[in-house]
Write a structure and sequence with these properties.
Low-confidence stretches: none
Protein name: SnoaL-like domain-containing protein
Number of helices: 5
CATH class: Alpha Beta
Number of domains: 1
Order of helices and strands: HHEEHEEEEHH
CATH topology: Nuclear Transport Factor 2, Chain: A
Distance between the termini: 47 Å
Strand content: 35-45%
InterPro entries: NTF2-like_dom_sf (IPR032710), SnoaL-like (IPR037401)
Largest sheet: 6 strands, mixed
Radius of gyration: 16 Å
Helix content: 25-40%
Structural class: alpha+beta
Shape: globular
Pfam families: SnoaL_2
């Protein structure tokens, strides 16, 4: 029963993100967490603050404004004291050159008492880089920007 509840909450979170409400995902992060998006591109990097995650989500939707997330598979193990989740999610959206971004990401999440303590995200980085290149070619230089870090969030807060 617990695993079904967690899966339903994850599906709801992806649905909320689809409608532009990424803040609800940020709100589920534990006070101390790690978010890693593997690769070397504008969306990659490691973050540990809600501010950096907010800046990251804002970038995602500046780059792919109509991004959609479709959970294909959710695997859950453990109890509420330590829940391990593996997801396979289709992500897609129109690109400025008229083509479509279509990729599959896998995520490994760890939760403690309903709060996310770790997320590890991996997409096909070749497909992602092609999309970022198309976005940059259309005039959005942020598609080739350095990854967002916790230091970026501190600079925004201070400045």
């Amino acid at each position: 029963m617990y695993h079904r509840i967690v899966a339903a909450k994850l599906r709801k979170a992806f649905s909320q993100i689809d409608s532009g409400d990424w803040q609800s995902m940020v709100d589920t992060l534990a006070p101390e967490f790690t978010y890693i998006f593997y690769g070397e591109h504008a969306l990659s990097g490691e973050r540990h603050t809600r501010e950096a995650m907010s800046l990251w989500w804002q970038r995602v939707f500046r780059l792919i404004p109509d991004a959609r997330f479709e959970p294909l598979e959710i695997i859950i193990s453990g109890g509420p004291w330590l829940t391990k989740v593996a997801t396979r999610v289709r992500i897609g959206g129109p690109l400025p050159d008229g083509t479509r971004y279509d990729n599959v990401m896998t995520q490994f999440l760890y939760l403690k008492w309903g709060r996310i303590t770790e997320i590890h995200t991996l997409e096909d980085t070749v497909v992602l880089q092609r999309a970022l290149d198309a976005i940059a070619a259309a005039g959005n230089a942020e598609a080739h920007a350095a990854p967002i870090t916790d230091a970026d969030a501190r600079a925004v807060r201070q400045g």
